[in-house]
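Researcher: I'd like a structural prediction for the single chain below. Treat it as a standalone chain; there are no partners to consider.
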Amino acid sequence: MHYQNLGMHALYIDESNDHVAIIMGKEEIIKELNQMLQRIEGKPVHMRESKAGTKLKIIRHFLRLIEQLYMEEKIWLISKNQDEAFDWLGKYFIKVFKSRATLTVFVDEGLDLKIKGRIHSLYLRPITIYVDKSKVQCADVLSWINVKKNRVNSIWEKISNYLLE
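Model: Treating it as a single chain, here is the predicted structure.
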């Protein structure tokens, strides 16, 4: 993972059943990715609410787009259980703080409070957290795939190639 451009990326975070998905990338790239997924659904993507046939179509497009963006080092994916994810976030926020960069974080409802409850406020100073479900659509898809990975193992194998440790 390249940390030299800490302030150049935003984080998009979603949680499903104690699994946290984090997508890191430039805001304009994630916005475009969300719009592409939204075109499939005809509205903002929320996997729990999507129909089965639509879910498969969303996942296929997501995989294709993620592969291309990952290879170009335009996005990074993190998918971990809740404790591991918050440990990763804590370490990342410390790096942002020490580098004197700023960071924008978009989260699903309730995650802002969990982050503020688990990460020392000193390290949250350079970080702006927005609660915006429409901006975390990609993280919602990754989170949903992680929760369902036993049922969609072949899809998970493809996604796991693009996850950061």
